[in-house]
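Obj.: predict assembly geometry.
Materials: sequence records (below).
Method: joint structure prediction, all chains together.
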Amino acid sequence: MTERRLPPHRLALIAAAVGGIALLATTLRWDWLPEYREAILGGLWLTLTLLVTTSVAGFLLAIPLGLVQVRGPRPLAWLARGFCTLIRGTPLLLQVWLLYYGLGSLFPYLPGVRQSWLWPYLTDPWPYAFLALTISFAGYEGEVMRGAFAGVPKGELEAARSLGMHPFTILRRIWLPRAVQRVLPTLNGELIIQLKATPLVATIAAVDAYAVFGRIRQETLMVYEPLLLMALIYLVLAGLITLAFGALERRWSRHSGEP
Amino acid sequence: MSVMELLALAPPGWGGALLNGLWLSLQVAGAGYLLGLVIGMAGAAGKLSGGPVIRDLLTCYTTITRAVPELVLILLLYFAVPEAINQLLATLGLGRVDIGPFASGVAVIALVQGAYATEVMRGAIRAVPVGQLEAAHSLGMTPLTVFRRITLPAMLPGALPGLSNLWLIATKDTALLAVVGFTELTLAARQAAGATKHYLLFLCAAGVLYLIVSLISNLAFKGLERRATRGMHHD
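Observations (raw structure tokens):
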């Protein structure tokens, strides 16, 4: 069925792409792959862990960030807006370095910190990587959530209030679900942006997929192969995220009864 | 040394080095952004009125560039593409060319910006009512005149928010060139920090400079938007 829908020009393009990939697979060197298989899979695992944990933590932070900007005490709203502006106005690489080199350079001055149980964590790059990516996601998503909270129709909230719902119940049962439903279509793009941001942690010596390929490039002195495979891996990951979201959105819209 | 001495413009202060870095960042961002706009315009035109093959190829371009991390694209363009060009030149019996970090930086920013700009402009052009374009054609305007007098002014209000966002992304993406040793603002700040051991101070100073750039850009684009939407309904 699907073959019949493919127009001839697309078949030709697909054939050209397959030919190109076959050419790359046969003319370039791939004999290093078995040796580095474990390292690549390990790096990939860390990249995915970082992506999922920082996105979830960042999104949880974004909910209060968006909420207080729409209906919060003035000082809190300003603070949240300032935070979002700060995060969105500076490069993520600078934030990563600021946390790792800047904040990290202060800790040794704390008395007794070198002997405490915290010290191994404070010298490890992963907590900084997690923190930087989390606050970055929260900053961008906080702005999106602000718009989503503000965009929920007033009538729905008034109806809930007139039924005597507690403000917290309104938030839990109506305001938050409706806002999340509004941001769901944009989350796909945000997650891919977050995936593309994860290689930055390699600059503070956290060994994610990108760092593993950096090591391969140094050890094998190959120019094309590791870079091409790395690009392909990120491409496939982004494709998987899009597929997953497509399925999720179909399920979500079936439940809410909206097309 | 005090904070003021550290940030002084003349050495041994590092303020001058930071401003140099900022200037380099802005140059790369500006050149990449403008090139990206050109690519985006061509891409949008191709997606809207090109043949099926061109449309499919453009979809491949925008999908791939938007899915692969900028950091990986920078490495590809900085290491792999010059190597491929030089191998090609060598087989043709020609000499080597050197592609510096500035040119690769501009190329990467332009490539990425072009992919996003294609989508922004395609959406904005599609929002222009077909009747206006048909009216212009029926008056005998050439396609170029139609574009300049009707399409461009009519699409601008729809495209400006996206384009302003893209400019901010361009300025922030220049920081990634630090990874290939290009002394733009972020790397300049880190070098200053490493030399003086005042990490927090210099990285914060760079952050303030980026923030100033983004705030000024926001104001400028707001002004542009007001100009582009004058005479339209405001609610």
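Conclusions so far: Residues 33-71 of chain A form the longest helix (39 residues).
To do: check interface contacts against the pulldown list.
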